[in-house]
Design brief:
About 30% of the residues lie in helices and about 20% in strands. By secondary structure, it is α/β, with parallel strands linked by helices.
Length: about 375
Amino acid sequence: MKESKKLWICLFMIVLILPWTANGFERIKFGVISDPHLAMPAAGTEDEFKMQLSSVDLMKNAVKEFNKTPGLDFVVLTGDITLNAEPWNVEMIKSIMDGLRVPYYVVLGNHDISPVPTPPKPGAPPSMGAYIGVTRSTFAWTFQGHGFNGPDLWWSDDPVPGLHIIGLDTNVPGIWGGTVPANEIAWLEHDLYANRDKLTIVFSHHGFVTWHKDEESAAWKNYNWFPVDNAAEMRAIFEKYPQVSFVINGHRHIGQRYKKVNDVYYFVIPAVSSYPMRYAVFTLTPDELSWVSKDIPISKKVLNTAKANCIGEPGEWWRCSDHPKGPAGDKKMLEFFEAKEYMKGKVPVRFKPQRYGELRVPSEELLGAVVR
């Protein structure tokens, strides 16, 4: 009888512990890079605001830095993988990413869609204007197993027990703006409901909040295309599910920063291809998310060229309305892009996954009821 009682107690404890073993984690470290716009040397390729000729070296160096990062669990690339969906650039960045020593995930950006042919730039070969890249589906099949699992352009996965990550496709063919269509929203809601017991991070290319007043309307260079056009609807979905604590995107080509909206933290990641050319390393515990934004190692010549191109003629389109030409405007523009005050930080997790340390020993009455 005593042996039977011990057996029942052991079984009861196993049942209690299972949720914690399934959903608990102590510390996770992951890297995020965005907007490499990778461009192998080809006709018309040059270092402009996006450092095209330097993009391969920048990407290789970012991978090297990740491989030297102790305790790294995985890496996420948040879109604009290639310059303009050129097949040779798809092949090259796949080979570079495959050099990572940890699993990696990919979401697609607006430059990962076959572009609409345009007239060539003055002096460029006529073929450059006629070139048409590959489709998003080609990217999805190229990166199968790196988030993508089948033909869908969005995905979800559990890289470690207790953490659920989602990769959204926010792209619209023909424009550089974004949206999340109805069928993808339906999938997202189903996925969030099915995984409501796991802390969840959403990754995308386009954002869901604004980082400058110029993004609030189409009045300034269509800057309203930086966030998705149904951003308010998407934020409401994220807020609806408490496990969604963090949303991370690229696209904006500015230094890393974050914004808290109704208990959800939204992060934007710097571009690999443009000044200040950084990558991010996040450390996640059940209580907080901390991060450091790091410069990608590169020669001073490349760094100085990227900085000069940012505030010079190549970066003219990227000037906001309050960054006029001249020393004062240049200084303000560089401060906006560098965002040095956000290079390190930490924020709390609003959703607390179950952990071993929170296990409560059942009362004698409850144990007695089970044994009886």
